Amino acid sequence: MDQSVVIVGGGLGGLSAAIHLAAAGRRITLLEKNARLGGKANLIAEQGYFFDTGPSLLTMPWVVRQLYEVAGKRLEDDLELVQLELTCRYQWLDHTTFNAFQTLPLLLQEIERLEPRDVEGFLRFVAYTRRIYDAVAEPFLKSPFDGLGDMLTPALIRDSWKIDSLRTVDASVRSFFRSPYLRQVFNRYTTYNGSSPYRAPATFNIIPYVEFAEGGWYIKGGMYVLVEALTRLAQHLGVDIHTEAPVTRVAVEHGSARGVIVAGEERIDADQVVINVDPHYAYQHLLPPKKCVVQATQQPELSCSGFVLLLGVNRIYEHIAHHNIFFSHDYPREFAAIFDKRIPPADPTIYICASSVSDPDHAPPGHMNMFVLVNAPTTNGHVNWQHEAEGYRNMVIARLERMGMTNLSQHIVYEQIMTPADIESLYNAPGGAIYGLASNNLWSAFLRPPLRARDIARLYFVGGGTHPGGGIPLVLLSGRAVAHQMLSR
Ligand SMILES: Cc1cc2nc3c(=O)[nH]c(=O)nc-3n(C[C@H](O)[C@H](O)[C@H](O)COP(=O)(O)OP(=O)(O)OC[C@H]3O[C@@H](n4cnc5c(N)ncnc54)[C@H](O)[C@@H]3O)c2cc1C
Description:
Elements: E1 4-8, H1 12-23, E2 27-31, E3 43-46, E4 49-52, H2 62-70, E5 81-83, E6 86-91, E7 97-101, H3 104-114, H4 118-142, H5 148-151, H6 154-158, H7 169-176, H8 180-187, H9 206-214, E8 217-219, H10 224-236, E9 240-242, E10 247-253, E11 256-262, E12 266-269, E13 272-275, H11 279-285, H12 289-296, E14 305-313, E15 323-326, H13 331-341, E16 350-353, E17 368-376, H14 385-402, H15 408-411, E18 412-418, H16 420-427, H17 444-447, E19 459-461, H18 472-487
Parallel strand pairs: 1-2, 1-13, 2-9, 6-15, 13-19
Antiparallel strand pairs: 3-4, 5-8, 6-7, 10-11, 11-12, 14-17, 14-18, 15-16, 16-17
Helix pairs in contact: 1-10, 1-18, 4-9, 11-12
Bound molecules: flavin-adenine dinucleotide.
C-alpha cells in the first residue's frame, strides 16, 4: 500500500495527480525544474503589477471542488471563486461590440441587438450543445479512461449521432447563427483547446455549453492562487515537493520505470513514475533513446501557441473589461496562417485580460495590468522570434490603438514579451503548444498519448499532453484519471 511515486513536473496536472495519489496513501515526491510550481499556470509580479502569465479563465469549477473533497478540505475555506457577470466583451474593427453576459435575459438582449433572428438560434444552440455535453461528459470527462478502447463505450456508440462529429464547429455554428459577428464569437471557443473552428469537429461545441451553463470564473487574488492552494493541499497530504529539481532521465530497468535522475546526478528510486511533461518531450529527452525513434514519427498536430505581452499601463481604459476580445477581420485567414502556413497572423484576434478590473491591487492606483494574448503557430523554423518579436509587438499595439485604446503605446510603463519559443523553453512544451495536441480532426482525441505508457511498465503520464486534454479543468481531471489507473493496478 505504501508505494512510492515520483512525479516529474509541478504543473496543475502533476499537482492534481499528487493530491489524488497522496490521499490514497501513496508516498509522493514531486520534482519541478523551475523555481516555482504551476507550469503554464504561472505569475509575474513586478513594479506593482501582477500578471497571471497563463490561464485567466476557469471553467468547470466543480473539478477544483472535487480535488478539495479528495483532500478532505472545503474549497470555501481556501478560495474565493468569482463568477464574472460580463464573461467577455467582444469588439470589432468597425466598432461593433458584443457583451457576453452571464445572466440570460441580458445575454439575449445583446444577441437581439446584433441579429434578432439569432435569439431563437441561440436557444436551439444551447439545447444542441447540452445534448453533446450529456453524451460526452460521462465517458470523456468524468470517467478515468485510458485510450480508444475505454472511450468507445456502448453508450457513446449509441449516442454518436448526438455528438455531431462529422461536421466542423464552423459548419454547425453557421447553422444556428446568421450574424457574422455571432458566428465569430461562437467559433472562438475552439481556441480554448488551441484548435481551429474550421477543422475541429462540432463536438467541441461542448465548450460554449460549459461556459454558458456553468459560468466563466475568476479566482480572487489571481489565477495563480489556485496553484498556491493546490500546493497547500498536496503538502497537507504529505507530498514531498522539490523545486529547481530538473529530471534529466527516467531510470528504466528491464522494461520498467524504477525512478528518476535529478540534474544528472541524484537518483530517486520509486515504484511508479508519473510524467507531467508533454509525453513527446519525455520520449525525446527523458526516456531511453531507442523509444524516441518510434515515438518521434508519431507526433500528431500540436495545438496553437501564443504570443503574449504583459503590459503595465499608467491610465484606466474605461471600456476594457476583465476579459476582452478584439476580433480579426478575416477569421478563416487567421487560422490558415496559424495551422496551414504556420506564420503569425498579420491580422490577429487579440485577447486582453485586465485582472485589475476585478482585483484593483493587481496594478498601482490609476493603472491597469494587461495580459495580451495572440494565438500563434508553434515554433517551427519559419519564424525567428528573436528577430520578429519587436515588430509583431508594435503591430499588436498599433492595432489596439486603432480599436479604441487611444495612445496605448505612450501609456505603457512596464512591459514583457513572451513568445512561443519562451513557452517552449520555460515548460519543455514542444513547440510552445499551449494545450498539447490540437483537436483539429475527428480522430485527435484518440491520438493523444495514453495515461499509461504501453512500452514501459510503471510509467504514467498526466496533464495537457495526454487525456483528456489541455486547459485547467481537463488537466486536473487528468490527474484524477491517472491516479485511478495507478490505484486500480
Ligand atoms: C498563455 C496561456 C494562456 C492559457 N489560458 C488558459 C485559460 O484561460 N484557461 C485554461 O483553462 N487554460 C489556459 N491555458 C492552459 C493551461 O495553462 C494548461 O493547459 C495547464 O496549465 C497545463 O498544465 P499541465 O500540468 O498539463 O502542464 P504544464 O503546466 O506544462 O506543467 C508541466 C511542468 O513540468 C515541468 N517540467 C518540464 N520538464 C521538467 C523536467 N525535466 N523535470 C522537472 N520538471 C519539468 C515544467 O516546468 C512545468 O512546471 C493557458 C496556457 C497558456 C500558456
